[in-house]
Amino acid sequence: MNGIEPSLVTGAAAVAGTLLGGLTSFATTYFTVRRQGHDERVLRDLERREELYAKFNELGSDLTLDAIEHPLDDPRKLIGIAALAGRIRLTGSADVLHAAEAVIDHLIETYQRPPADLGAVVRAGPHEIMAPLTTFTQACRAERERMLRKL
After folding, report:
1. Which of 51, 68, 136, 147 has minimal CB crowding within 10 Å?
2. Any idea what the Cα angle at residue 67 is, between residues 63 and 68, rounded to 5°?
3. Which of 38, 16, 36 is nearest to 28 (CA)?
4. What's the distance, Cα to Cα, between the start and end of the chain in Å?
5. Interval 31-48: pLDDT, tens
6. What is the pTM of this model?
7. How high is the pLDDT of residue 56?
8. What's the rounded Cα separation, in Å, for the pair 116 and 124?
9. What's the CA gap between 22 and 78, in Å, rounded?
10. Could you write out the DSSP letters of every residue in 12-45?
11. CA angle, corner 144, sides to 54 and 30, nearest 5?
């Protein structure tokens, strides 16, 4: 018996082919499921951020209009937006956080000015009033686009 029996070679090739096919199928399934899990986490995170940023934007808009017409008679008015900024600090990008902090700084500055007629201020410079919130929204949009590119 100098040579290998042909039936052993055939059997070994069949076993190797079966193992390779099974391993390929397992690897494909594993990586597909892993990628789907990643995509789902990114989308959930994106959805939570969008909700947080929308709340911040709404409250910031309300406070901006209030700050034009009224002095800061009660600093507790800023607690809600400060709490939202804290949540942004935990999850948002540095650019979004910086923009959120600029909104709060602008609110404080606006509250320190003498009260003004809202209609007159809007007519004089409608875009300038909401400029910090516009910058915040642009930072949120850029962050969203970066997150979607990960998918």
Report:
1. 51
2. 125
3. 36
4. 59
5. 887 888 889 999 999 999
6. 0.80
7. 98
8. 12
9. 60
10. HHHHHHHHHHHHHHHHHHHHHHHHHHHHHHHHHH
11. 125
Look up residue 77 and give its two tokens: 């008015």
DSSP code of 70?
Answer: S
**Which of 80, 92, 82, 70 shows the shortest CA–CA distance to 143?**
92
Is the separation of the CB atoms in 81 and 63 below 8 Å? yes
| Residue type at 125 in one-letter notation | G
Residue with tokens 């909401």: 130
113-118: long-range pairs with CB below 8 Å, 24+: 113/67, 114/71, 115/68, 115/69, 115/70, 115/71, 116/68, 116/69, 117/69, 118/65, 118/68, 118/69
| Spatial distance between the Cα atoms of 84 and 90, rounded to a whole number of angstroms | 10
pLDDT value of residue 76: 96
Contacts of residue 38, defined as CB under 8 A and 6 or more positions apart, other chains included, come to: 150
Rounded Cα–Cα distance for residues 110 and 146 (Å): 32
